[in-house]
Structure to design on (505 residues):
């Protein structure tokens, strides 16, 4: 693909969509090497252009659109179903083809995002006589961590990809030189190179509200932790989890639902979130509209709109302990617009995943609740998993799981080490707990793949919905190669065959 238009557009927009602060866009009629970048404000705009790649509008990427990172991180798993016709063809039947909804969108989004980040770094390096050295180093470090996020997204979904992370290659971006896809080891090293201790230590541990949404040390280490989970490098998972804990800025919320409440934004459980505002300028949270039924009536009288989209299959809902408070965010009963109580189980193929609260200032579609990407519970459960894989069943893993479960039960229902005599027993329990705690946050696909369960679950009609759900994958078409999405054919053709398709497509 040709990326120059993406880079220019991003620089012109200069929108720090991850932040609700005093940063405003700078608009230029024409960008040249003579007039941009030239000032400290230009440097800010370059950084903002990279943060903008997490959003690029309220319908893209790190939000809730039907081809967003959320959905592609859930597709084909036991915690996702959808009524929309587009999902009931190839995606749920596992007859996947390149260039088909929704597989190619994240590739087309994140590949230019990596290039934009690389170009921004190259331009910032020319500003050492304009910007304070410490601030310039922090800017470059923020961009490198953002680039690591983009590369990890691509790697997680498509396997190793040939990104542009050499600053010299951004000089003549309209005439790219295609290189073969790297090996897994090479791709991991590229991501690690943007997440070294030196880079991370240049970031702040926390930022003031005016800069909320910038990538912090904890957010950077969270990306590294996810990479090492993906690689099953459990000693390094443990290392990163303990470093995040040692920052002493994160803790679990007492009440599960409060994590996503408009009245409790920026709470200490959140490691990284995108700040949102109830406006259509690319900074809104539209999660609720995607999951609510069309006849939903707000219990508070607020504007509400529902497109009757994403649901959680009843088979997944039924696996919860009935006393588990976390299930309360999976709505079964609601009041419709004519005042009737509706049992969603009589009407829909799954429960309504309603983690995000209402926003009194929202418009129905556009809400201002910050969009949570990663939180502290992810870290505790990752550490519990790592310790089990390293040592087998152990009390610390049990204690970490119980720490996460404690707020979910009253009275408490702690797990006991004696009930998990083997590593496999505790591994299966951890996978269940990952589902109960992190459902509908975009983690399930990679968790199932890591545990070797993705294809098994996808081909299990009971686990994927049961008799009261529309049939999913009735031919049991899921195959081992489906753990990766296909590379768009357009990219392979444009490369002249240098880039190779993933196996099976």
């Amino acid at each position: 693909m040709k990326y120059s238009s993406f880079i220019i557009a991003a620089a012109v927009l200069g929108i720090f969509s991850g932040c609700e602060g005093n940063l405003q866009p700078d608009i230029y009629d024409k960008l040249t090497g003579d007039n941009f970048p030239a000032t400290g404000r230009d440097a800010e705009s370059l950084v903002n252009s990279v943060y903008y790649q997490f959003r690029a509008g309220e319908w893209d990427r790190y939000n809730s659109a039907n081809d967003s990172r959320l959905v592609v991180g859930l597709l084909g798993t036991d915690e996702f179903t959808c009524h929309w016709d587009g999902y009931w063809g190839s995606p749920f039947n596992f007859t996947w083809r390149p260039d088909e909804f929704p597989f190619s969108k994240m590739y087309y989004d994140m590949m230019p995002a990596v290039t934009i980040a690389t170009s921004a770094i190259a331009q910032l390096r020319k500003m050492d006589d304009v910007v304070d050295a410490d601030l310039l180093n922090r800017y470059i470090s923020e961009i490198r961590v953002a680039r690591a996020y983009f590369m990890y997204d691509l790697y997680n979904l498509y396997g190793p990809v040939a990104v542009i992370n050499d600053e010299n290659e951004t000089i003549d971006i309209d005439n790219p030189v295609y290189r073969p896809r790297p090996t897994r080891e090479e791709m991991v090293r590229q991501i690690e190179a943007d997440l070294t201790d030196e880079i991370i230590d240049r970031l702040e541990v926390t930022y003031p509200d005016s800069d909320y949404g910038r990538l912090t040390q904890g957010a950077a280490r969270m990306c590294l932790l996810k990479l090492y989970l993906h690689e099953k490098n459990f000693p390094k998972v443990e290392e990163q989890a303990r470093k995040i804990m040692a920052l002493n800025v994160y803790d679990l919320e007492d009440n599960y639902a409060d994590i996503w409440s408009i009245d409790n934004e920026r709470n200490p459980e959140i490691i990284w979130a995108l700040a949102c505002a109830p406006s259509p300028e690319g900074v809104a949270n539209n999660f609720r509209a995607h999951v609510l039924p069309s006849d939903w009536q707000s219990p508070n009288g607020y504007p509400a709109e529902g497109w009757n989209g994403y649901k959680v299959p009843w088979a997944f809902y039924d696996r919860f302990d009935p006393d588990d408070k976390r299930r309360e965010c999976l709505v079964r009963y609601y009041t419709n617009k004519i005042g009737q109580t509706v049992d969603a189980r009589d009407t829909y193929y799954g429960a309504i995943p309603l983690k995000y609260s209402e926003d009194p200032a929202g418009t129905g579609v556009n809400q201002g609740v910050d969009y949570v990407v990663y939180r502290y519970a992810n870290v505790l459960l990752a550490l519990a998993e790592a310790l089990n894989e390293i040592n087998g069943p152990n009390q610390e893993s049990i204690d970490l799981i119980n720490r996460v479960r404690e707020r979910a039960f009253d009275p408490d229902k702690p797990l006991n080490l004696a009930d998990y005599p083997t590593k496999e027993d505790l591994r299966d329990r951890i996978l269940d707990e990952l589902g109960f705690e992190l459902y509908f946050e975009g983690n399930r696909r990679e968790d199932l793949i890591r545990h070797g369960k993705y294809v098994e679950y996808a081909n299990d009609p009971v686990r994927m919905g049961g008799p009261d759900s529309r049939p999913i994958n009735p031919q049991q078409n899921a195959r081992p190669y489906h753990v990766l999405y296909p590379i768009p054919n357009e990219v392979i053709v444009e490369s002249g065959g240098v880039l190779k398709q993933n196996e099976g497509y």
